[in-house]
Amino acid sequence: MARQQRAIRTRRIFLEAAAEVFDEHGYDAATIASILERAGLTRGALYFHFTSKEELARGVLEEAVTAEGLTPQVFKLQEWVDIALLLAYRLPREPMLSASIRLSVDPRARGLFGTRWPDWIEMGTEILTEAKARGELLPHVDPEVTSRLFVGAWTGVQLVAESMAEPPDLVREISALFELILPNNAVPGVLSRLDISPHRAERLLRESREAVAS
């Protein structure tokens, strides 16, 4: 059991090191040598878990779709909001997540590995479909179209914010995006009860991690 736990930790160290290097330098410029230096482990240990840089990139992308911090809510639409706010809060703080976007927008890496955007769209579609079944969405709303367009908008907001000389807080930007989107999607009685505060994600994540630790 101890050996298995050690192997899991070692694999995680390599994924996090690769994510940091991919995030800072891009896929093409990243090298096994730089990943090994960042991880502080041996080449033999790396090749026990990953046979190539390509496998490391795939491993990083496998970690990209995450709902950590999400808890069941009265409204499914609130859960949809929470996933987007949590990702916006975590992404600047977790290289694994920001590296997945860097790999997704890199044409070469995207051609090799694809992206996880379809998975995010599917997740959003499932939540919005249930929200519509519960009467939380306006009649004209198509859950799949809305989810697809929102994933594109979220990604665009993140990329533009990141490129600015003084990047704005991403959670506040996504909160503002919801201010524009939700009135055209949520029924008034639900809209008035949704919390899109930029402070919400930090609280949700803290409470979730405290619950796991206790």
TrEMBL record:
SUPFAM superfamilies in UniProt: Homeodomain-like, Tetracyclin repressor-like, C-terminal domain
Keywords: DNA-binding, Transcription, Transcription regulation
InterPro entries, alphabetized: ArpA-like (IPR047923), DNA-bd_HTH_TetR-type_CS (IPR023772), Homeodomain-like_sf (IPR009057), HTH-type_TetR-like_transc_reg (IPR050109), HTH_TetR (IPR001647), Tet_transcr_reg_TetR-rel_C_sf (IPR036271)
Organism: Streptomyces finlayi
MF terms in GO: DNA-binding transcription factor activity; transcription cis-regulatory region binding
Known DNA-binding region: 31-50
Record Pfam families: TetR_N
UniProt protein name: TetR family transcriptional regulator
Domain HTH tetR-type: 8-68
Keyword field contains Transcription regulation: yes
PROSITE patterns documented for this protein: HTH_TETR_1, HTH_TETR_2
